[in-house]
Description:
Strand content: 15-25%
CATH superfamily: Histidine kinase-like ATPase, C-terminal domain
Oligomer: single chain
Order of helices and strands: HHEEHEE
CATH class: Alpha Beta
CATH topology: Heat Shock Protein 90
Structural class: alpha+beta
Helix content: 25-40%
Amino acid sequence: MDQDPTAAATARTHAHGRLADWGVDEELTYATELIVSELVTNAVRHGSAPLSLRLVKDRVLTCEVHDISPTTPRLCHARTVDEGGRGLFIVAQLARNWGVRYTPDGKTVRVEQALPSTTTHPG
Length: 123
């Protein structure tokens, strides 16, 4: 992924396909697409290329977006007149857990979501 303005749409499409392959329900798929969109948009706006997206389905559904900028993402509480600043707040509302892991080549924003008990786990 690069810092193209269409990166979020491309990432959502990729996530949708992967989640469909895994048999993830519509509600969790929608929430994950929104999380992916917000994280990739933040990486495009505030991070540095190259960007990468990783989805992992195990005990929880994990979404990771990595970029090479050391800039710390901030959870903001936007005012009603603000045009931006709601992304991580939305992510935090949809996630079971989220955080940032710093690496020698940047950072990874990691989001975990609970899997419904009806979703099949990989065998």
